[in-house]
Amino acid sequence: MKKLALVAVVVAVVAMMAFGVYAASDIRNTKHNLASWGPGTYKSTNYSEICVFCHTPHAAGSWPLWNRNMTGVTGFITYSSIAFDVTASDIDSTSKLCFSCHLATTSPTTALNNPSNLKNNAQPTFNFIGIRHTAAIGTNLRDDHPVAFNYTNAQLAHSEIDTASNVATKLNETTTSLFPNGDMTCSSCHDVHGKLDSGNNVIPVLLRRSNASSMLCLACHLK
Predict the structure, then answer these.
(1) SS3 label, residue 147
(2) Residue ranges of the chain with pLDDT lower than 50?
(3) How many structural domains does the chain have?
(4) Does 4 map to a domain?
(5) What is the DSSP letter of 31?
(6) Which of helix, strand or coil describes residue 131?
């Protein structure tokens, strides 16, 4: 009887853990849900799936099971200033995943490596051509937050930047998820799947934490 009770407890804990992981984000209620029934104004006219626009279980072009081409994304001008200089010759691989869509208004949102077999391998069509200009960042990153630099190196060089482990604790994340390969990337600030706040609402602009009172900025910057 005790063994049965123990099994029941273990099952319950695993179930709660699984639910917790699921509840941590909800891409269905974000602009990244490009399915025909998605909540955004930009969406597919023939695809009802969500994940296929970025991921594929087979024929992936790159990690993580990526369904888009990012190899041709080059020519970036990185941020630099008197106080902080990014000397990277190119942006990091993680950010390139974002730029496979967010590069220009003419970015080929229909070019999937492995189109859905539910549509007989037909590429998705959309109600807009390309992406909206407000979502097209371009290759000139001098007016954007720096990416493609080693976070720990920057932290050691600047006393007003908190350690990666402290930042991870503040955001309830891991250093690996925040800084892939040790780099500051687009995903250091953004959760592309739509992280939920305490009220189960997707945090605006797909941020990892609400920036009300600059709380996201203050996770890294000691001011």
Answers:
(1) coil
(2) 1-23
(3) 1
(4) no
(5) T
(6) coil
